[in-house]
């Protein structure tokens, strides 16, 4: 009798966990792969870089067949996505469940150091560890190894960025990204090495919020509908003009997408703030005094303002002020989540007083897109639309059609914000060039993402700015999202075009190419914020270094 009861209990637990049938999981996985086969722009590039054959289904279907729970199935899907090493590609579940430990870590000097602590959750009297202490292990496993394992759920174009995303998830796990987050226990045992060398062990409660995912049971058969409708838009250009991160569950890195610079508390007394004091301010800006030089500063936190027109006007007002009152300008796009590509081009025009070539885009010419551009072209002509718009639709339609008919997986590089890849400086109301005319230094790092990759590339390729910092994220494409299948209710991110630089670049470890995807944009002056010295000094050393760099650039430009 006891054996029978035990068997019934095991069967009941299995039945509760197994809500998708094997056939449904097989169908959803095949459908997800079909999306990448049809729409994924870097399919050949990823095969070249990582020898990833996305269409080799058998080993993956074998893994799917071996899964015994829905969560295990989602794990396989996440692993398939991870192999692409693509910031814009993700497998996201419809869950708001989250578990946190009350502190955050990141990678400084190659080790995991605590950089944020919620003292309401972890009062200092009970948990005296602090900023700069090292996380050694969690539940008996090396913290760095845990970071490597978690990195697969938030893949990035830049491998260090992937590891840093994994590190941020050691202590904060959302089920939307981590299927088995709901299986975490009530607490975690963490081992922390204090800065004085003492090694201490703490038992911290997992703070859990939200509702764990429960999908199904789903009747079969259910027709897979709606998943591909995301590519149909009244204006097909809108989809191509976006390159950024919107998923809040990807913003685990401290200060990612934040208006205020990560080093705001270390800004010297010689800095006078202009923007950033009001909640409505999109930019953070001001002026440094340095060795007799006046150095302007503006931070671009992302390229997704509520109104691009309003943000451009504010940016131009700052440019006008800086033109009249500074000797050089620092543009900070560290930890920038990207966004509207045309807004990025617009800001580049306001900083560049001569013509330059914008980032081109090699688009995947799937037939739905060809048809959409044809219809947009016809509609624009019928409505008597602006000639510039008609020319742009015509250019993209012709190239998409040609690529599709020739069987190419990508078009030639095309513009997405006008009918030409050439950009001219911003012209003010007086008819004169109103772009910034003095030396410029742009700060980038491994979380300068998407449009931030593109902006940095344009500033470097045009010779307009010195790039300072670390290799950018390498999220070099345009992105959208799709439903991942008829049954699982998940969604996937999709890179639908590749950013293309004007000239071929030879970068160690990569084939010579014009792509930003994975290769990233490389700084002219390498300087890493991610050091213990900067963490403990709130970035004072980093500020001093970039001020020295712009001061030298100003002097050399005279």
3D structure, described in words:
This protein is of the alpha+beta class. It folds into four domains: 17-92, Histone Acetyltransferase, Chain A; 98-209, PDZ domain (Pdz3 Domain), CATH 2.30.42; 243-357 and 421-478 and 505-557, 2-enoyl-CoA Hydratase, Chain A, domain 1, CATH 3.90.226.10; 365-406. The protein has 15 helices and 25 strands. The chain has helices spanning 2-17, 22-39, 43-50, 58-66, 70-82, 143-150, 159-168, 236-240, 308-325, 341-349, 367-382, 387-406, 451-461, 532-536, 540-557, and strands at 91-92, 98-100, 103-108, 111-117, 134-138, 141-142, 172-174, 187-193, 199-205, 207-209, 242-244, 271-275, 284-290, 293-299, 328-332, 338-340, 356-357, 360-363, 422-423, 440-444, 465-469, 477-483, 491-505, 513-515, 525-526. Strands 12-13-14-15-20-21-25 form a seven-stranded mixed sheet, with helices on both faces. A hairpin with a 2-residue loop joins strand 5 (134-138) and strand 6. Helix 6 (143-150) packs across helix 7. The longest helix has 20 residues, at 387-406. The radius of gyration is 25 Å and the shape is globular. The protein starts with a helix and ends with a helix. Residues 1-17 and 222-232 have low confidence and may be disordered.
